[in-house]
Amino acid sequence: MTETLAPTPVLPPLQIGCHTIESPVVLAPMAGITNRAFRRLCRRYGAAGSAAGGASGATSLYVSEMITSRALVERTPLTMRLIEHDADEQPRSIQLYSVDPATTARAVHILASENRCDHIDLNFGCPVPKVTRRGGGAALPWKTELFRGIVSAAVREAAPYDIPVTVKMRKGIDDDHLTFLEAGRIAEGEGAAAVALHARTAAQAYSGTAKWEAIAQLKQTVTSIPVLGNGDIWSAEDAVRMVRETGCDGVVVGRGCLGRPWLFTDLAAAFAGRPTRVQPTLREVTDTLRLHTVYLAEFFEDERKACRDIRKHIAWYLKGFRVGSHLRASLGLVDSLTALDDLIGTLELDQPWPGDAAEGQRGRAGSERHVVLPEGWLDSQALDDRLRAEVAQAELSVSGG
Ligand SMILES: Cc1cc2nc3c(=O)[nH]c(=O)nc-3n(C[C@H](O)[C@H](O)[C@H](O)COP(=O)(O)O)c2cc1C
Predict the structure, then answer these.
(1) 0.85 cut: is pTM over it?
(2) Helices 303-318 + 337-345 axis angle, to 10
(3) Does 109 contact ligand 1 (Cβ within 6 A)?
(4) Mean per-residue pLDDT over the chain, rounded
(5) Domain boundaries in the chain?
(6) Ligand 1 centre from 180 Cα, in Å?
(7) 335-387 residue pLDDT tens
(8) Is residue 121 in contact with ligand 1, taking CB distance under 6 Å?
(9) Which residue has the least CA distance to atom 21 on ligand 1?
């Protein structure tokens, strides 16, 4: 009789405050992407990966696209829609972008007292010039007391409701102005439930490679709460390698799952110690693409809008498959589910998973840049009245990190 050994999990479940996340994987918040529709797809694939191993209800954490504290306090219709979750989403996670403690407190109070979420992630990673120009996003942790005030306000308001607050950040502004170790220590001291590091500076934006050594450094510095690693995980193997190389307690996956939500099946399987990997045929890929569009139509309550939105996902879904440029262009103009079905019907759907051609980098890349900051921002880590007024403006028209 042969004895079957249970696979050995790579890591224990991830504890984020009161939430036990069986598979230590987090869907990175991505503006314009991680809405309720995409999260539903990722959640289904994650659960499939967990169930295959017999784990009970194993889940990952799927973070919403970012909302700004100010828009939440003003209850703008778009923001109120973005914070909705499916009835079976657990924990209900929301990412908040904030630039001042008072608005943060009000926003968190709304989320907590109105029972609108179970986890709040604070975004300190946005590198876009219109945000850093005012001292927001990845520029903000440089002003340590402002950073402390925001984290502390969020934790204070969320604590009575047992809602954990986590911090997501970059390494710093540039290589000469690294902030992550001090910010990690501050977040830990103020009661954050975990810290996540995208191991790039704002100057790197999405260029070059993430410096995973920084994740290892953070793990050695922040010792009482989980440290999550983020940056350049394109496969389940990358995720496991990041854990082995850095000692991090879990991983945050962004671009790797674009057009590839089944990566969450792979990740759940890999972390459970199983070799299962999803390698869909083009027929299965287009079934998922279509389902994504249907979910978007439900989310937007508008089929045309859903079709416009799915366009940006099409190249990611089709990466590596043999699909002519003319067809790709037509798919990029799709405006109804019927048109989508017609175009899918013309594809050679029995193509197997193309392997390497479909793997690897997808989504944003770009090149290193000079980080635009308010005048005098780097002169001191303290905030004077002029800069305080400037950073208060950093919340206008923000989108994504
Ligand atoms: C389209 C897009 C939108 C993003 N929006 C956000 C955001 O709203 N909040 C945030 O903290 N990070 C945001 N990010 C950054 C990701 O969460 C993640 O940190 C980054 O992509 C690095 O991880 P990756 O290499 O796995 O993609 C965004 C990234 C992309 C590509």
Answers:
(1) yes
(2) 30
(3) no
(4) 93
(5) 14-278, 282-352
(6) 17
(7) 999 999 999 999 999 999 999 999 999 988 889 999 999 999 999 999 999 99
(8) no
(9) 254
CA of 389 to the centre of ligand 1 (A): 27
CATH of domain 14-278: 3.20.20.70
Neighbour-count burial for 38-50, b at 16+ CB within 10 Å, e otherwise: bbbbbbbbbbbbb
Mutational test site, ligand 1, from 34, 166, 198, 242, max ligand atoms within 8 Å of CB? 198
Catalytic site residues? 126
Q: Is 365 helix (H, G, I), strand (E, B) or coil?
A: coil
State the average pLDDT over residues 101-123.
98
Is 20 strand, coil or helix? strand
- Residue 249 CA to ligand 1 center (angstroms) comes to 19
Please give the backbone phi and psi of residue 36, each rounded to the nearest 5 degrees, phi first. Answer: -55, -35
For ligand 1, what atom is nearest to the CA of residue 200? 22
Q: For the segment 48-94, what is each residue's pLDDT rounded down to a tens digit?
A: 888 644 443 447 999 999 999 999 999 999 999 999 999 999 999 99
